[in-house]
Specification:
A two-stranded antiparallel sheet has the order 1-2. It is built from 3 helices and 2 strands. Keywords: Membrane, Transmembrane, Transmembrane helix.
Length: 118
């Protein structure tokens, strides 16, 4: 059976549409890279702000990082002229789900029953 010209045309339309979409995606990615590079080139502190935004989007937010949130909170309180927040807060404690022994967020395993904690 012979292939018609319409089937070959559909293949070329599919290839062309895929190429256009990939080209647009590459252009968008390049434009975002150029924009961030241009916005963070000066020494006005924008690099640090952009870095925090990217880390917040793609990683652990600053207020959830160990120690990172406290430094920012301490700086904000000092800037306002109020009393300084303690550098270290008390460790979070809760009972082990298996045996009930007290565990903290620093424990990887329960000290009494050796249950792996998440």
């Amino acid at each position: 059976m012979r292939h018609t010209g319409g089937a070959q045309l559909n293949v070329w339309v599919d290839i062309g549409a895929t190429s256009v979409v990939l080209l647009l995606a590459a252009l968008l990615l390049g434009a975002m890279f150029i924009f961030i590079k241009a916005a963070s080139d000066d020494d006005s502190g924008k690099y640090k702000m952009l870095r925090e935004m990217v880390e917040t989007i793609f990683g652990t937010p600053a207020h959830l990082r160990s120690g990172g949130g406290q430094e920012a909170a301490n700086q904000a309180v000092e800037a306002n002229g109020k009393a300084k927040v303690p550098a270290q807060t008390a460790a979070f404690r809760e009972p082990c789900p298996a045996c009930g022994a007290e565990v903290t967020e620093k424990d990887d395993v329960c000290p009494s029953c050796e249950l792996r904690l998440l």
